[in-house]
């Protein structure tokens, strides 16, 4: 059964510039230079993301929905799933080299990054879903009411507490405000692939 998570239930990993709640959802203004990354290729460690996190239970899923309205390099939003400072996953949409792209960063000591262009998603309502079942987090996303797309299957096998929720970052500019419209928990996906 789907259950709405109140915006007041989460705690920020890093406080945004501004957070405003209204009848339409949560409006989050990111700090310039905010990002989440560890070492790979660039050599730096950034842990200044704005992630609103609450407990994610095993055998459950979370869904975050937001309006996709990005203008600058690396503007990004989606879901953030955290085990600790060196083990986390962020997944959603990012503006990379002038194009909206759906992707994920999976970090286990060092980060990796995968992207797939979705330019037709600009200006529309995006939902990102992370489903934790067994030893994996399965990430799916969709725009409006279109079918779900598989984004990533990542290892998530831990006895430690896991927290998750919406996130945004603005690595290259000030003034990014992301409008999140919903945050829900649901049962996990029952299978990785649809029936043939």
UniProtKB/TrEMBL annotation:
Q: Which Pfam families match?
A: DUF1349
The protein in question is named DUF1349 domain-containing protein
Gene3D superfamilies, alphabetically?
A: 2.60.120.200
Which InterPro entries does the entry mention? ConA-like_dom_sf (IPR013320), DUF1349 (IPR009784)
Q: Which domain of life is it from?
A: Bacteria
Under the heading PANTHER family, the entry gives:
REGULATION OF ENOLASE PROTEIN 1
């Amino acid at each position: 059964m789907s259950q709405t998570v109140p915006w007041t239930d989460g705690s920020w990993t890093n406080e945004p510039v501004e957070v405003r709640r209204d009848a339409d959802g949560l409006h989050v203004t990111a700090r310039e230079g905010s990002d989440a990354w560890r070492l790979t290729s660039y050599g730096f460690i950034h842990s200044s993301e704005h992630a609103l996190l609450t407990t994610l239970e095993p055998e459950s899923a979370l869904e975050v929905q937001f309006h996709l309205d990005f203008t600058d390099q690396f503007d990004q939003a989606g879901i953030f799933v955290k085990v600790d400072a060196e083990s986390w996953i962020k997944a959603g949409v990012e503006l990379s080299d002038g194009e909206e792209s759906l992707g994920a960063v999976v970090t286990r000591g060092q980060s990796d990054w995968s992207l797939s262009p979705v330019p037709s998603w600009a200006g529309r309502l995006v939902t990102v879903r992370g489903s934790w079942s067994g030893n994996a987090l399965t990430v799916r996303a969709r725009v409006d009411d279109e079918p779900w797309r598989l984004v990533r299957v990542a290892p998530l096998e831990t006895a430690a507490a896991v927290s998750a929720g919406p996130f945004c970052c603005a690595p290259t500019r000030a003034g990014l405000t992301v409008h999140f419209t919903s945050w829900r928990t649901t049962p996990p996906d029952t299978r990785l692939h649809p029936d043939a």
